[in-house]
Amino acid sequence: MSADAIIDVRDLHKSYGNLEVLKGISLTARTHDVISLIGASGSGKSTFLRCLNLLEIPTRGEVFVHGKRMPLSDPDPSRGERRVTSERELREIRTHLGMVFQQFNLWSHMTVLQNVIEAPIRVRGMARAEAIERAKDLLDRVGLSAKVDNYPSQLSGGQQQRVAIARTLALDPEIILFDEPTSALDPEMVGEVLAVMRDLASEGRTMMVVTHEMGFAREVSTEVVFLEKGKVGERGAPEQIFGDPQTAACKQFLNKVL
Ligand SMILES: Nc1ncnc2c1ncn2[C@@H]1O[C@H](COP(=O)(O)OP(=O)(O)OP(=O)(O)O)[C@@H](O)[C@H]1O
């Protein structure tokens, strides 16, 4: 593993009962990488992303974050189940991995500002005044300084997703995992969220993005990974994948979506 790898995934497998969803995926994300995961519906993109921070428990394979192995018991061939061996370690490692979900997942009983300051105060023990100052800066960056005292239900989907991004940034994670961040949005709101993500990429944030937005994948990624039926079908620079795909499956997929 190279020294600057933030996430190193080795031979990841995931099954739900008899359904084998991930069939051995290896992938490394280094500082400043923007990796887009693309592929047909059901190819395993979201499952892969959720295995990285153990929101799903991989059946086999390992995930290393900064060289530290995610705390999982060894695969048990008889039962196929693995368990988290240290909740404390998992919590610690997760602070390096931010995640933005399709459905925003904001706390509905908290204002926008409270949503953003909660984790820094609770997880990092940051002083309240400092957390508020930082949160206001972040909300300004995502264009929402006027909404700090609103509740999520008073915001559009695009605005809620921008709050979710600010909330993730508040912990200053080394990599941000985006799980189809624009899929739940009305079309007119997709652009404002992608614009924030483009800004993050241009300032060198390390990101892994499951997306159906091929324009974003093509223009912003440093690497595109095409998943096909739970395996890496093809991977490469965006100009390679979009300009000259090598596999029939990737060509067919791109013909359908472009
Ligand atoms: N909790 C679960 N239990 C059983 N099967 C699941 C579960 N989560 C996902 N699957 C199945 O795993 C497969 C891959 O799903 P996943 O959501 O990872 O695909 P995807 O590539 O992200 O698709 P999409 O682009 O439609 O979101 C699908 O067949 C799905 O039905």
Largest sheet: 6 strands, mixed
Structural class: alpha/beta
Side-by-side strand order of the widest sheet: 6-7-8-3-9-10
Please give the alpha-carbon distance between the first and last residues.
Answer: 35 Å
Ranges where pLDDT stays below 50 over 5 or more residues in a row are none
Name the shape in a single word.
Answer: globular
Mean pLDDT: 95
* Number of beta-strand segments: 10
Oligomer: single chain
Secondary-structure element sequence? EEEHEEHEHHHEHEHEEHH
- Gyration radius, in Å: 18 Å
Number of helices: 9
Structure description:
This protein is of the alpha/beta class and 258 residues long. The chain is built from nine helices and ten strands. It has helices at 45-52, 87-94, 112-124, 128-141, 157-169, 187-202, 214-220, 238-243, 248-257; strands at 5-16, 19-30, 34-38, 60-65, 68-69, 97-100, 175-179, 206-210, 223-228, 231-236. The chain has a six-stranded mixed sheet, with helices on both faces. α3 crosses α4 (128-141) and α5 (157-169) packs parallel to α6. The longest helix has 16 residues, at 187-202. The two termini are 35 Å apart. The model has no long low-confidence stretch (mean pLDDT 95). It binds adenosine-5'-triphosphate.
